[in-house]
Design goal:
Chains A, B: This is Helix-turn-helix transcriptional regulator. 2 copies of one chain form a homodimer. Chain A is mostly helical and 124 residues long. The first copy, chain A, has a single domain, classed as Arc Repressor Mutant, subunit A (Orthogonal Bundle), CATH 1.10.10. Chain A contains 6 helices and 3 strands, in the order αααβααββα. Chain A has a 3-stranded antiparallel beta sheet. In chain A, helix 3 packs across helix 6. Chain A binds a DNA duplex (20 and 20 nucleotides) through helix 5.
DNA sequence: CTGTATCCCACTTGATACTG
DNA sequence: CAGTATCAAGTGGGATACAG
């Protein structure tokens, strides 16, 4: 598979059925970014993650974790006890992914003053 | 503004009204990634970009370009002639943004074999 | 040529209730 | 505790027609 930047302009770029599009969606989805970064801090349980992140519904957290698990970025470990106890942590692949999205997120935060300045300029 | 990675776990992270969330959405939207990378190749006209990218509707290309322009990443230059002639290119800020999303996209492409292997493992 | 306006649908997300 | 099921609401994106 060639790199994206080498395929630009050849018409087949990031087509709807391109598998990497799915991965990008999972990584940059509403909660994907935050889950990846939260798990950089170490292993966490479901409810613990939910509190740590804040504002995410059970449904969306479960869905986000399942997607990331399917992509091989999150490792889900269910201890067979009652009440249930499930741990989530990053795989080595997931750690790389988390690093990449954090670099992007951090760039945005650092650049926000410049972006906000542009917004105000247009508002005037 | 603190960096994202330093705000995790304090409850206010990436709230729905967080302005950086908007920027992230524009940069990682269906066509935002591709437009940014396409413009790394230099200045392009509207129809030229549309052909170069392929598969994007006029509506979505216009919307994507307008968002990126509002965020100060794309510079739109309209030459006042008939028929209309409009050029698009990256600003310095946009060039940084394009580099970041390309790094992420390239990582995904390079990592696709590992991800696809995980998909097949689950399918079995 | 470079868009805008309109309509429409699929998909994402959220709220709530329920279960093993 | 750790989810799933269901329903309601909002959003992103495409097709088409039209305008400056």
């Amino acid at each position: 598979m060639q790199k994206l930047s080498e395929r630009i302009g050849r018409g087949d770029l990031m087509a709807a059925n391109c598998p990497s599009r799915e991965v990008l969606k999972h990584m940059t989805s509403r909660w994907g970014v935050v889950v990846l970064i939260a798990l950089e801090g170490g292993t966490h349980r479901f409810a613990e993650l939910r509190r740590r992140i804040g504002g995410v519904s059970e449904r969306m957290l479960a869905q986000t974790l399942r997607h990331l698990e399917e992509d091989g970025m999150v490792l889900r470990t269910a201890h067979d006890v009652v009440p249930p106890h499930v741990d989530y942590c990053l795989t080595p692949l997931g750690a790389e992914a988390a690093s990449k999205v954090r670099q992007l997120a951090d760039w945005i935060e650092v650049s926000m003053p410049r972006i906000a300045a542009q917004w105000e300029k247009r508002a005037s």
